[in-house]
Amino acid sequence: MAADEWFAYYKKGGKENDRNIASSLSCFCTDLYEDEGSDAQEMLFATSDKKMVATCSEIFDDKASVALIATGVSMLIVAVNFILKVMLIEMVSGLRLKTMTKETDITMVAIFVGQFVNTAILLVLNNASFRDFDEGVGPLSFVFFVGTETDFSVNWYRQVGALIISTLIVQALWPLIEIGMFGAMWWGKQYLDRGMGSDSYKT
User: Fold this and answer.
1) CA dist 193 to 181, 185, 186, 189, Å?
2) Do the beta carbons of residue 34 and residue 46 sit within 8 Å?
3) Distance between CA atoms of 23 and 29, rounded to whole angstroms?
4) Which of 4, 101, 103, 143 could form a disulfide with 97 if both were Cys (CB 3.0 to 4.6 A apart)?
5) CA dihedral 58, 63, 68, 69 (to 10 degrees)
6) How remote is the C-alpha of 202 from its chain's centroid?
7) Mapping DSSP to helix (H, G, I), strand (E, B) and coil, where does residue 44 land?
8) H helix runs in 46-149, sequence order
9) d(Cα 166, Cα 146) in Å, to the nearest integer?
10) How far apart are the first and last CA of the chain?
11) Does an H or E element contain 37, and which?
């Protein structure tokens, strides 16, 4: 059954028609990978027509590509959040507010709203399809024209939900990365200031 689904999806137009892979193939390859490891990608199985096919070769490649793209998008979102934070801090500082408390409050709210819009709202809207809402001719369909999801379906949780989770994980780790990055820059400036030597009293 899994080999037949592979043949129908990859050789008979299932992938081009944007239909989902049947669970029989996905579950089969997942179980096979747990038993055989990376060798599962090259193993051959017979279809009902007795054709020998590498049943799990493409699905592993597809999963790897999706995971790579999702990681790249997550890192990009976190990078934009960092740039957004720096810009908002500078903008609020330029307002010359009378008290530090007020400046801190406005900075906190501005960073929260900016990063929430960039991380959550835009990510959800960009993957949404508004054709059922405005028949593809409204402003939402004009702005967010690449989305395909019309509801919070299993496919939405598999793609968009997983991307949001991976983004939040990277975002949670980013403060540690930021500390290491700026710490390395600070140490590097000190190292260059003393002529790349070990004498800490030399400048």
Assistant:
1) 18, 12, 11, 6
2) no
3) 10
4) 103
5) 100
6) 46
7) strand
8) 57-93, 100-116, 122-126, 131-134, 139-143
9) 21
10) 73
11) none
